[in-house]
């Protein structure tokens, strides 16, 4: 509709939702009269979803990942560790698929078999409230939090967005003064220690 409805509402002087809802049927009729094109064939090509079709599985994003020699793989700045079993050992050096569901669930699959895993996030945050107070520990945690504030916490842009889960859209560029985890160096740590002392 290319913002036609918004422009029409302004031209009609409509500014309330009730008035817009009352105006909508006449707008749709006028819009269809001017722009609608009848189909060449009125046959309905839609088909119902079969009972054996799983829409969640159909709408997943699938990414191949190679299993390392220590039974790990990486996806969206997280490390996934497979259990050390004879079946999983056969997957070393081979590609398996990461199924990223629209609701945020992650499954690892090899030959349509779901593999159990443990996830280690490479962007963890220190939660001071969850740790018992200790003289030295409090200072170390304060330094860790200062270093985390310098870290670029954006997830991988190759993974799907999580806006459907209510998560905010991530900015395309890193915030000023932040670095990716692997670029944080000794100078950053020393600056954090200096800030925590003062």
Describe the fold and architecture.
By secondary structure, this protein is of the alpha+beta class. Among the domains are: 67 residues, no CATH class; 70 residues, no CATH class. It is 32% helix and 17% strand. It has a four-stranded antiparallel sheet, with no helix packed on it. The protein starts with a helix and ends with a helix. The model has no long low-confidence stretch (mean pLDDT 81).
Relevant terms:
198 residues, alpha+beta, 3-stranded antiparallel beta sheet, 6 helices, 32% helix, flat
Write a compact overview of the structure shown:
This protein has 198 residues and is an alpha+beta fold. It contains 6 helices and 7 strands; from the N terminus they run αααβββαββββαα. A hairpin with a 5-residue loop joins β4 (95-100) and β5.
Task: Give the topology.
Layout: H1 4-12, H2 17-35, H3 55-58, E1 61-66, E2 72-75, E3 78-82, H4 86-89, E4 95-100, E5 106-110, E6 113-115, E7 117-121, H5 135-150, H6 186-197
Antiparallel strand pairs: 1-4, 2-3, 3-7, 4-5, 5-6
C-alpha-based Rg, rounded: 26 Å
Sheet with the most strands, sense and barrel status: 4 strands, antiparallel
What's the end-to-end separation, in Å? 58 Å
Q: Count the strands?
A: 7
